[in-house]
Write a structure and sequence with these properties.
Distance between the termini: 7 Å
Number of domains: 2
Structural class: alpha+beta
Radius of gyration: 20 Å
Number of strands: 14
Helix content: 10-25%
Number of helices: 6
Shape: elongated
Largest sheet: 9 strands, mixed
Strand content: 35-45%
């Protein structure tokens, strides 16, 4: 199932009654999305589809060869990826380009696979891997980012040409998560506390469990869109998840009307805080 955006989900759920303390915020304009990475250049695939890149992120894993050592996966796009919360996409079953499939959109997000020695294995749209006469420099991970330049031609008939320069942040890690208990453990409790605060229309309690980057705007009356979409907080459940390192958890969620989702919960200081939610 293709992930859907917060805005789409909100259109559905806001038909129900919205707590007075949050209703006014539902009509607030969505904040502008800044690029997560620094990306320039373009590719032409099959001599017909040209894509100019504006944003990018990197992840650890291997979507192409699951029996091989994890690779660095750089995803460059003609979309501002922050709007799609790529930090939540931390498993091969929830690929970034799953949201942009179809003949007209198959080239929105391009994957570059860099092996552990720093060599480019290949690149391609929609999860494909196209080898070729690529010239690649860079690929070293430093301070949570990876940068490089790739150029050349490739594809089965030499119909692909690319020149891409990127400097992008890591936003996820495949294969290292430790399963959380069914109730999500301490991160799950933070999620439930958020739902309770929404149900009780207690904005101070809501702010107390939001990620630190949300606090200032929430204190001034602008809650994140995912909080508005929770409506009254009833009927939502944490059904498991994974812990990544000591302070980053991804929770699996179930909502009313059969919707599912995933939440990013971070340990900031001595408290777990909800950073983001995607509805799927």
């Amino acid at each position: 199932m293709r992930p859907i955006t917060i805005a789409t989900f909100a259109v559905v759920v806001l038909a129900y009654s919205v707590p007075a303390g949050l209703a006014a915020q539902a009509s607030s304009p969505a904040p502008k999305v800044a690029a997560l990475g620094k990306v320039s250049g373009s590719c032409t695939f099959d001599k017909t589809h040209t894509v100019k890149f504006v944003d990018g992120v990197a992840l650890q894993g291997n979507l192409f060869f699951k029996d091989k050592e994890p690779a660095t996966l750089v995803r460059v796009s003609n979309l501002m990826l922050g709007a799609f919360r790529p930090d939540l996409f931390v498993d091969p079953e929830a690929e970034l380009d799953g949201m942009s499939s179809g003949p007209k959109n198959a080239y929105n997000i391009i994957t570059l696979s860099i092996d552990k020695t720093g060599d480019l294995e290949g690149l391609g749209p929609s999860g494909s891997l196209r080898t070729g006469d690529w010239t690649f420099t860079g690929g070293t991970v430093k301070n949570g980012r990876v940068s490089g330049t790739v150029s050349g031609t490739g594809g089965a008939t030499g119909g692909d040409t690319c020149r891409i320069t990127f400097d992008v942040p890591f936003v996820g890690d495949y294969g290292v998560g430790k399963p959380l208990p069914a109730d999500g453990g301490e991160p799950g409790q933070a999620m439930r506390s958020l739902w309770t605060s929404v149900k009780n229309e207690d904005s101070a309690a809501t702010v107390a469990v939001l990620g630190e980057s949300w606090v200032a705007q929430a204190q001034h009356g602008t809650m994140p869109q995912f909080v508005i979409a929770f409506v009254n907080g009833r009927g939502n459940r944490v059904v498991g998840g994974k812990l990544y390192g000591d302070g980053r958890a991804i929770l699996d969620l179930e909502f009313v009307m059969g919707m599912k989702g995933r939440a990013l919960v971070l340990k900031q200081g001595d408290r777990w805080r909800v950073q983001d939610v995607i509805f799927r």
